[in-house]
Amino acid sequence: MSKETIVDPDILIAEYTLGVLNARDTARAQTLLSNDPDCVTAALQWEERFLGLVDQLEPLAPPPQLLQRVQAMLGMEITLVKRPSFWSRAPRKILGALWNGLWFWRLLAVLLLALAATYAAKPNLAVLNAPPLSQLAILQAPGQTSTPGWVLTVDEQHNVVLSPRVHIDVPFEASVELWTRSASAPQPRSLGVINANQPVTIPAERVGELSMDQLFEMTLEPKAGSPSGAPTGPILFIGRMIVLNQKLAP
Amino acid sequence: MAFSSFDHEATLLACARGDHVALQELYRHEAPRMLALCTILLGHPGEAEETVRDAFVLIWKNASNYEADAGAARAWIYSILRYRALNRLRQGAISAVGDHAPADFPSNVAQLASGPASNPLTTTLAQLSEAQRRPVLMAFYEGLNYEQIAQRLALPVSQVESEVRSALSAIAEHYQA
Question: Which residues contact residue B114 at a Cβ distance below 8 angstroms, ignoring those fewer than 6 apart?
Fold first, then answer.
């Protein structure tokens, strides 16, 4: 804007809202906005008018993780995005055609007969040799009791094996840290920073002794993990271990 | 403006009361258009997503400052978004203003006047001369200021200022009529 020109304040506010002013005139408009509530109303009125140009644009679907980033920055509970199952990704038309086809059923019947004959002849050694599953925890996002986030099991060597059931997006500047605690050792103990979307095995020597009521939780922490050695960020997933085949007290 | 039954004001006031679900509803309703605007303004999907993210954080943190008497809630939301986007554009977060490919925004008269979301603003813009309309659209969709528009159009800054002010006056008259 040239120095000599005297511009209607409403037009100055319109120019400011549109974003065309140089630094000097932007400062003039901001002074007006700071001192005159009517100018604030005028600015919002212009912003509302310009929405007509926003509505000309074709909406763009944001990536599912963007809402999670907003929630993470605000320390809110993260809205989970369910991992698409194999069956939802498989070409359903082909499966449907197979399912409805006569030859599919004939072939299936032949295969089942062959399998029945095999298993009648010898015991199912694979099943007999499977290690008994004895300790298990389902980790869930706080408040989302119907959605398993991670499944935790303990293998024969007492390693803790964790497998994700949902996909989450972790902000670049953050990480997910796994913690454990129990009633007898209530101070959370870090089991390390983990990849939020990959299965992970925590070695038995790192896990240490597990109690019957062992609790596991994952928290959102700075990139290299909690700087204090204790959880600092929001809990993403939490779950208590249960011991299977445990005799109930009478 | 496109018809919408979404109650921005009630949702924003719910955000001010700390209602997390309200923020999700606002996000689901408005984020796609906010992302479209930022993508066209900043010319970079990653920058656009970060701007939308930052805007929602600011909307949540400042929701209690919103006063319905001062103006429409949706306008308040976009004032935060556009301020943030223009700052990012001008403070060097993007390599250089106007460096990205020219924005593919609706600019011709037919598009503006008869587009799927034609509204009083686009109707008025369609009635203006190309010399008046073009710099307004360059400012809004490309985030260019007077000097940058003048440079792009090879015109004196004073002429661009004059055309834009005429356009803004015509828009104001249309709404006051």
Answer: none
Express each pLDDT in B30-63 by its tens digit: 999 999 999 999 988 899 999 999 999 999 999 9
My answer on whether A182 and A119 are in the same domain is no
Q: Residue B60 and residue A74: Cβ atoms within 8 Å?
A: yes
Distance from CA of B100 to the nearest CA of A (A): 18
Q: What is the CATH number of domain B8-90?
A: 1.10.1740.10
Option in B53, B69, B135 nearest A69 (CB)? B53
- Do residues A141 and A190 share a domain? yes
Residues A170 and A142 both lie in one domain: yes
Percent of chain A with pLDDT over 70: 72
Q: Which of A37, A43, A62 sits opposite B31 (nearest CB)?
A: A62
- The encoded tokens of residue A178 equal 């796994």
CB contact under 8 A, B137 and A53: yes
Pairwise CA distance, residues B36 & B30, whole Å: 10
A161 within a domain of the structure (yes/no) = yes
Q: Kindly report, residue by residue over B112-133, the tens digit of the pLDDT.
A: 655 656 788 998 998 999 999 9
Question: pLDDT of A168-193, one tens digit each?
Answer: 777 777 889 999 998 888 889 999 99
Phi/psi zone of residue B72: left (φ > 0), alpha (ψ -120 to 50 degrees), beta? beta
Q: Return residue ranges of chain B for CATH 1.10.1740.10.
A: 8-90
Which residues of chain B does A75 touch, with a Cβ-Cβ cutoff of 8 Å? none
Contact B82 A47 (CB under 8 A): yes
User: Two tokens at A30?
Assistant: 């901001």
Report yes or no for ipTM above 0.95.
no
Closest residue to A22, CB basis, from B33, B119, B147: B147
Cα A62 to Cα A95: distance, rounded to the nearest angstrom? 31
Contact call for A44 and B72, based on CB within 8 A: yes
- How far is residue B106 from each of residues A54, A210, A247, B97, B103, measured CA to CA in Å? 10, 63, 71, 20, 9
pTM for the whole structure: 0.61
Tokens of A15: 């120019």
Answer yes or no: do A56 and B23 touch at CB < 8 A. Answer: no
**How close B109 comes to chain A (CA, Å)?**
13
- Pairwise CB contact (< 8 Å): A17 & B79: yes
Residue A1 placed within a domain: no
Q: Which residue has the higher pLDDT, A40 or B107?
A: A40
What dotted CATH number matches B109-176?
A: 1.10.10.10
